[in-house]
Structure formats: structure tokens, C-alpha cells
Amino acid sequence: MFFRVSPEVAGELGPGSVVDRSVRPAVASKVEYAFHDWVGDELVTATPVFLVTRSLGAELSRSGLSGFELRDAAITLAPEGDEIIGDIAALPEFRWLVVTGRGGHDDFGLVFPTRLVVSAAAKGLLDTRTLPRCEMEPYAPTD
User: Fold this and answer.
1) How far apart are CA 29 and CA 22, in angstroms?
2) Could you list the residue range(s) of the whole structural domain that residue 92 is in?
3) How many domains does the chain have?
4) How far apart are CA 9 and CA 44, in angstroms?
5) What is the pTM of this model?
6) Would you tell me how many other CB atoms lie within 10 Å of the CB of residue 28?
7) Is there a contact between 121 and 135 (Cβ–Cβ < 8 Å)?
8) Which helix (H) or strand (E) holds 124?
9) 14/31 Cα distance (integer angstroms)
């Protein structure tokens, strides 16, 4: 069983990001995530990237789940973030969750255009974390 995951959009890609939008889906090679707002979700997104807190990333690394790797990302505050969040120190550390798997096959995978799909095992792990704005619904592969 698989689930489509719609994480919180807590910001946008900042000017330090490098994204090739000439391909579909777009591919990022460097990520700067500029937070606008944050209510505590440990998994956030801004197309085409996903980020997880360092704590969740460590748990994912220990889990043996497939279809992802973790990389560094620059974390900044957008102008709205300065007003709402106040200080970058109010945020935990985040890692870039690079999804390498195929949706409906691997524990973490993408389906076109950049929808995150996770296995029941991955959902079980995510269900133990703080994700108040993240939506998960059953997903059925079409192939």
C-alpha cells in the first residue's frame, strides 16, 4: 500500500537555489529554502524539493527505507519570515530530502510532476513525527 503525501509549503526556493526547469520534472542541484512561515512540520516542500528536520533525517537514515538521500540545504528567512518567525534561530536544522525512488515502487518516490509517494512503512515512520499540515491519502500506482 502506498500514500500520496502533500507536505506543508512553508516557504519558497531562494535565490541561492539552482533548478533546471527545462526538464520535466524540474531538477534541483542546489537548494536555498526561504521560510515564510512554519508551524512545526518536520517535512516541508517548495516545488521541486522536499526538506526534513535534521532529527527526522537521522531517523530516516537509520530506518533502512529506500528511495531517498539526504543533502545539505541553505535555510534562510523570506521577508515575511522575518515578520512571522522572527529569527532563523527559531527554526530547527533542515536537510534536503532528495527523492530518488519511483512512486508506487520504493519507500520514497515521485510521480509526475513532483508528487511525493511513500510506502506504508515510510508512512508509519512519518506518522510518529510532527506533521500538523501534512496530508496523506491512499495512492494506487497506474502501471
Assistant:
1) 13
2) 2-139
3) 1
4) 6
5) 0.93
6) 20
7) no
8) helix 120-126
9) 8
